[in-house]
Each structure stands twice: as structure tokens, then as C-alpha cells.
Amino acid sequence: MENSFALRGDICYSESLTTLSIHPNSYLVCVDGVSAGVHDSLPDEYKHLPVINYEGHLITPGLVDLHMHAPQFAFRGLGMDLELLEWLNTRTFPEEAKYADVTYARAAYTRLIDDLKNGPNTRLGVFATLHLPATLMLMEMLEESGLVSMVGKVNMDRNSPDNLCEASAQQSLADTRRWLGETADRFANTTPILTPRFIPSCSDELLRGIVELQKECNLPVQSHLSENQSEVDWVAELCPGTSCYGDAYRNFGLFGGEVPTIMAHCVWSGEKETALMAEGGVFVAHCPQSNMNLSSGIAPVRRFLNAGVRVGLGSDMAGGCHNSIFRAMSDAVQASKLRWRLVDSADKPLTVEEVFYLATIGGGSFFGKVGSFEPGYELDALVIDDRPLLPPFEAGIAERLARVTYLSDDRHIVRKFARGRQVK
Amino acid sequence: MENSFALRGDICYSESLTTLSIHPNSYLVCVDGVSAGVHDSLPDEYKHLPVINYEGHLITPGLVDLHMHAPQFAFRGLGMDLELLEWLNTRTFPEEAKYADVTYARAAYTRLIDDLKNGPNTRLGVFATLHLPATLMLMEMLEESGLVSMVGKVNMDRNSPDNLCEASAQQSLADTRRWLGETADRFANTTPILTPRFIPSCSDELLRGIVELQKECNLPVQSHLSENQSEVDWVAELCPGTSCYGDAYRNFGLFGGEVPTIMAHCVWSGEKETALMAEGGVFVAHCPQSNMNLSSGIAPVRRFLNAGVRVGLGSDMAGGCHNSIFRAMSDAVQASKLRWRLVDSADKPLTVEEVFYLATIGGGSFFGKVGSFEPGYELDALVIDDRPLLPPFEAGIAERLARVTYLSDDRHIVRKFARGRQVK
């Protein structure tokens, strides 16, 4: 009976990419952390459950951040006048190197967790650093928070500064095995995900070893793809004979298929790469704010959707400055409008309904049955007190969702559940 | 001695477009609402003044919103899937028509003022509606708030719906005269500004009458320019024989020169129009978020600056959803990066230092000596408690300003002064 209750309020979730399922003043039933659906009145079989009454509040699924770097939270908003490769070398790598020191890591990660607990996200795809102790500590802290996450110890054995580079492929793989040994079955809500940083940081030998580990342990994989033009050119040099960046991952066996895979960014993915992503069931983590901040560009999300590619949203902390996936939703709409206006008028802008889908079921599907209130889905839910955001005229639930998307902050999230467990 | 004090804290203002003037743990002296400069220690002549101690806080000039529509606050975040002309017809005009009812207007404006008082803006260029009673009430409420604003009763006598259209040019002008009679010398901090909505909404006769009024009363003017391509095409049709939209205003005598003028947007201003703006000293109100939300595009701000055009920032509430000009600052940087990447790599992106200048002195200059702490400037100041935003490493004042720009909200603004008077 733990994690079983009914939530009463104005309930809204995605029925499809373009359609909202809307239930004013209804009951969302949670049994053992799993949704038993939304009901106009509480069915007899659930009458014994405690009812948590949030009449007049908006209740939506928790949001999914498919891509963020935990150690980068510390410097969000700084050094934003650089492009990707320069930003990595002057800002990111020096900061990540500090996480060799667990005292520093604890202080920094404590603030991150606090921010994450207060915001609207319930699921996270997380890059840690290459350091074992700090990564383990981060996972303990995430588990403690109640959030549900997949966390990666980063692999990087080349083209990186001395103080943030694994000594060899063997050492990187040995550390990864040790980390997996310590974490694979340790946590309920915090699980490991293989995390080769990106092709420029990983030798061929390392990538081959990661594929072996993947097969052995049947783990998901996350990495970066086609974020920046200089990066794309560099990968073409590093991997001669490949038709595109995604093809380079695919040649190693790291591009979907039987390997559940998140690729972040995909700003410069062309037709061929898009087809490979669709074919392999690769999840794109679309990170619009980061792609603005690092002058990367605007990912062709409409084309991905048309091609049947699976898409979720990411904050890409600290390429993006804001953890909230509500912010990523409005950023995604705004970026798509600029792309439509300035790049290709064939690709229609995204709507609020569409980015809500991406932020819930879109990214949530990477975690299983997540991101909906249909019966059988794991119950991640937000209770949003949007009364301060109501306009001075009658507004329906779809309009209230739009207001929350553009205007809400952590003050409006008054309660949050992940897998039926209260996080806030 | 009213409005005389010293503020102690970490002080920062723009010395030039690209340079910050930075004063850790210093004293900003305010005498009768005017800055007497920033000092390392309190000079003897000011030792009698009360010292307001905000050690460890960031102190900056108040921010200037050069362009916002007060009645549109009510529906911000809604109907964002439309372009300008359709959005005006289906969302904006029906909402503005409601301001014929002062009860509705009072409820809506009360919330707006509350939001404005809490945020970082101290100066505003405001469009009201065409209604006299509601506009007068708005001005009373703004005066009461302590904010400093120029407010316009809107003129519109054509191409507008029946319930939001003045019956004739004569009636529009007569109403404007009546409004000026009631407001011209009535308030200390709230003054009228002539506000023809934009050329499509104003007959030639009306624009000619406004110019006469301008000469008679020596008032500033605000309007819209080159926001959207369909709008630009429409103006070309309405004003045959003009070389550009700005030239159409100029033909009427409404494009700078002796007339202090704000033109909002200027997304599609070409070389000719840019030269006319520079020549006439026209202020551009750059509204990056609105230009994304309404799919308008990205204004070529770098070109304006290179050409010597005066530029400030605007929220364009409710084309933009957020009043805070800190948000407009980060939006402006992000938009300029996308423009650099996707439109023209000759136009370098804007930096945080540059948008801080635009948000303070840039727009402030329209109000006189406003936007700096140099001696003689009117004292608008923010006290920002940015301690929750400090990174876990040593950060200088410039870095703290960047963090505030990207990450702050109204909770961080703990005190606010306009003309030396406390607003928050």
C-alpha cells in the first residue's frame, strides 16, 4: 500500500504528439507507484485510498530531462561567449577536473540536487565525470532525493587535458567495470548508463571495449552527436570512411538497434543520419537553450518527428542554464519558430502541445512506461499551483498549461512524485 | 534630504558598451534622487547621510524596458502559435477592447503593477489602449508604484475591429488632446508619450494630426517598425513612393530628428532604414523574445550598433512573456548567436557586457541621464541578493552579473530605487 493514493485536481497529459487528454476536477489513481488511470469520480475499488486534494491545481506528468551534466551546474551562466570546443577546453574540462576532490563535489552536487528537487523534472539522463568516488556519491545523493535517474561515469581517454583524461582505454574500462560492480544493483531509482563522452574524447579501443561491456551487462548508452560544425568536421577526420557522425557510432555498434541509446543535440544531423536514428530507434535529446548559448544552431526537430525519430528534451546543463524542462519546452518552441523563419519554411514550428509530449512521453519512453497517466504507466506527477498565473479571464486547462510552460518557476511546483513516491 | 542616502555593496555599471565599471564593497551616494558617484569609502561631505548596508550584495542600475503593452500582460503566454497580424486580430485586439471597462482594466493592471514592482525594471515605455479612463487609471497606478514611465494612449483609426477603432482621425486627436490636458503636468514620474500604434492602424490624417500635436506639446513618440515581413509589405502598399517603412514615418515627420522617438522591433530594417535611424537619433527597442514568439526573426542589433543607432531593450509584453529585462538581456545574447550562426557570420554575437549596457544606459538615455551611476545621473538602482546564485568557487563581480543575467528572478531583487525613491 506504500505509494498508493489518489490525487484530485485538474489533470492533463499527452494523448498523442498533438492532442492533450484533459480531465477537469478528476482523480488520478496511483497503486504501488503505478497509474491506475484518471477518473471523473473515485471508483469503488479505490475508495480505501487516501485522497490528496488539490482542487483547482494543475496535475501533469513529471518532466524528463534526457540530457544534463551534473558537474556543470556549478558554472551555468558563465563563459557563454564561446563555442563548443573552446568552451569545453576553457570552462568545462577545468571545472570537471575539480571533481577528483569529493569535498568539492559534495558541495557542488548538494546545490544541484536541491535545484532538481524543487523543479518540475522527475527523470534524468545524467553525465557525471570520469571520477569514481564523486560519481558514486552523486548516485547516492540522487537516490536519496527520490528522483529517478540514469547516471554515467564518463569515459574519455584522448584529446582531453592531463587532469581530466583516463590513462588508457584499459584503465577507463577497468574503472567502468569497477563502477558497475558497485552500482549495478545497488539503487532502486538510480541506475548506470554507459557514457562515452563523444567520439573525439574516446579512442577506438575504448569504444570497442564499451560495446563489449554493453553486451555483457545489457546497459543503455548516452553520448553526444552533431552538436557543432567544427566537431562534425573533426569526427569526419577521426573516422575516415564513415558517411556521417552517426555512422561512426554505428560502426562501433553504438547507435541504437539493441542498444537503448540517447544522442544529445543532433543540430547538424542530415538526411542520412536522421534515417539511421529512425532505423536504430535512437532517442534524440533536443537541447534548444544549450544550442543557442553555444552558438551551435537549431536542431531540425520537425524533420526528426516526420522521419519517425524518437525525441525528448534536455537541459544540457550547463550548455543550458536552466534545469527546468518547462523552460526547455518554451525554448524549443521559440527555436523552432526561428528555424522556420530563418532556415526552412517547410519545417513548421513546434506547438506547446507537441513540446509537452516531448517533455513527458517523448523522453519518458527511454525509461519505460513513463510520461503518461494511462493505466500501467509509472506514476511521475507534478502538482502545480498555477493560480498566481491565471489570467483575469476564464482559461481552460490547455491554456493554463501554456501559461505554466512559459511562466512557471519552482514556486509553482507544490508537490512532486516520482514512481509514486513524494519528492517535493 | 528626501531621497538622499548611501548604498553600500558590490557596485557595477556600464562604463561603455563593452566595459564594466566595477567597485567591490563601495558606496553609491544618492543626493536628492541623483547620483553623487561611487566611492571606495564614504567621503566626508556625505558622512551625514544614512548608509544602507548591503555588503555582499550586487548593486546595479535599474533596468529599462523601452517597449511594453500594459493591457497585454493579461494574456502573456497564450496564443503564441500565430504570427503578428493574425495574433493582433485574434488575440490582441479582442483583449485590448476589454479595457473599455475600467473594472476589468483595474483588475488586470493591478496584477501588472505588482509584477513590475517586484522585477528589476525601473523605467518603462508603455503602450496603454485607446481608452481614456483606463489609460488615466494606469498612469495613476504607475505613479503610485514609484516606477518612472512614459505612457501612451494608443491612436488607431483604421484597419482595426469595430470595438477597438477610433471613429475618425478627428476623434482620435480630440481624445488625445483631452488625455494630454488631464495628464501632461499631473504626475512626477509618469508622463505622456504620443503613441500611434503603427502605420497600418493610423490614417494619413491621423498621423499628420499627431505631428501637429507633437510640435505643439513637444512630446516624445513611440511606435512599431519593421517587425514582420507581411507588415512591411503592407506598409509599402499603404505608403507608395516611400523607400522603406522608416521612410514612411519620416515623410510624416515622425522619425527622430527633433522628435525623441522609440521604434520597437526593427527586425527587417535594411541598410537604408538603419541609416535613417542613425541620422534621426531614433531609439530602437530591441525585443528579442517577442521576435521569437511571433516568428518575426532576429533584429540585426550588431549592425545597428556599428551604424551608430541608439538601442535599448524591450519586453514587448505580451509578444514577450517576461517583464524582466534581465530575461531580455539573455534572450538578446542568445538570439544574436543564432543570427550569427544562421544568418550572417559577419555580425558578431552580443556579449553580456553589451546587453547590460543596452538594458541600462542604452534605453535609459531616452529618459535623460539614466542608466549609470556616474555623478549627475538620476539614481535608479537595484540591490540584488545574488548569494543563492554564487558558484562554489570564487567569482568576480562581472561573473556575478552574468549569473544574475541568466538565472535571477524577482526573489533576488531585494530592494529597488527609481529616482532615489524606494520602489521595492
Keywords:
homodimer; 424 residues; alpha/beta; seven-stranded mixed β-sheet; four-stranded parallel β-sheet; 13 helices
Structure explained in plain terms:
2 copies of one chain form a homodimer. By secondary structure, chain A is α/β, with parallel strands linked by helices. Chain A is built from 13 helices and 17 strands. In chain A, the strands form 4 sheets. A 7-stranded mixed sheet of chain A has the order 3-2-1-4-15-16-17. Chain A has a 4-stranded parallel sheet with strand order 5-6-7-9. In chain A, strands 11-12-13-14 form a 4-stranded parallel sheet. In chain A, helix 2 (102-118) runs parallel beside helix 3, helix 4 packs parallel to helix 5 and helix 11 (325-342) crosses helix 12. Chain A is globular, with a radius of gyration of 21 Å. Chain A starts with a strand and ends with a strand. Chains A and B meet through helix 2, helix 9, helix 11 and helix 13 of A and helix 2, helix 9, helix 11 and helix 13 of B.
